[in-house]
Amino acid sequence: MSVVSLGRVRSAAMFKAWPLRPLGQQAAPPNAETADRWLIGLRWIAIGGMLVTTLIGKRLVPDIDLFPILAVLTALIAVNLGWRLIVARRAGRPALVGPQIVLDVVALTVMLWFAGGTSNPFAAFLTFHIVLAGLLCGAGVSVGVAALTLVATGILGFADPLPLATAPLGAAPVQRIGAIVSLATLAAFIGFFVIVYVQRVEELRAESSRNEKLAILGRLVGAMSHELNTPLATILLASKDLVEVGREVASEEASRLAQTIADEAQRASEVIGLVRGHVRPDQHLESLDLAALVGDFAGRELDRLGFKGARALDLPGPVPATVLRAGVCQILSNVLTNAVQAVARRLGPEITLRLRQRRGGRVEIIVEDNGPGIDPSLLTRIGEPFQTTKADTGGMGLGLYVSSVLAERMGGSLAVENIGEAQGTRVILTIRAARGT
User: Fold this and answer.
1) Hey, how many other C-beta atoms are within 10 angstroms of the C-beta on 256?
2) Taking the model in full, what pTM does it have?
3) I need a surface site. Which of 115, 265, 278, 339 has the fewest CB within 10 A?
């Protein structure tokens, strides 16, 4: 069963986690751990390659002294394990790409000193670090690595050359084989890295485009919500007056309709304020029976959406909870809308609502449908702004994003998962229960 928490969205490459942001807020920078961990993984490949190359070289050139080379490889393994621990403890801090590349140049220089210096065909791998620095670091680090490489090359010019005179195949064939293998390996490393880098650039471009849309939408929401608050306040005041008028003329129906208008206007006003971040969650939190609220609202919302399929309600009550009524209703409205659209083409559409009390004073509202589910390749991105599975029907990809923002500002979370394979989707809203329960 595949699961994605909408409170944490992950990227496809390294599944780096980043929290959902309120509308209009700028995106967080890419996780610095990605490059650090990528270099650590690349170093393991390099260590394995050097070990294999050394053992093969010993067969071609028997007089090579393996002891210092293996000692350097052992030290590299220890250093790489140390980098893993350092990166793990520095979560969320700036990357250490520059120091890693500098240390790699030094380590490779020491390795080549005991393996023939510049006469070793694999000395060309020193230039690979300049490429790494150029793509992963700034101009200053790149120039520093290039200068360090020049110094290392000068030092290696004084190293003892490989003892090729003892090679059974002869000096010239061994040099030719080494040159071909080193150039082919270097080209493969650079090509692979450039391909990965280009893919990362494309991901960043797509993310930048989404963030730009989100910033524009944020400004638009800010301006529209400011303009909407005035007529909403007027509607709210007028509807309250209508409630009193209905009571004076003894018309229960008119009074009930006026009260409905007042409640919906209040709900709209609170949702606008909550999305904009201008309402503290504790200002409008209410202690209420969550089972009654969910059952009543879900029934009316499914009727409004024209859902004619089977409805299963498992809402054991009462369940006291401290929530923002307008926020819960808006989240349910978005989730139920998605569920109704998901089962629209099913022969026997079914939507199930469950309420579960968990340890730690948490309550889960679970909405399930028997639709086709979500493509696993898209599931990890559900909840990102402008990420939608309904682009062909006009979906904007903001419903679950806004719902996640509302849930977080009530101290809760929202998660989506597939039910088996093509058996439907489950959305779980987790919020805090009332104190003392």
Assistant:
1) 12
2) 0.46
3) 278
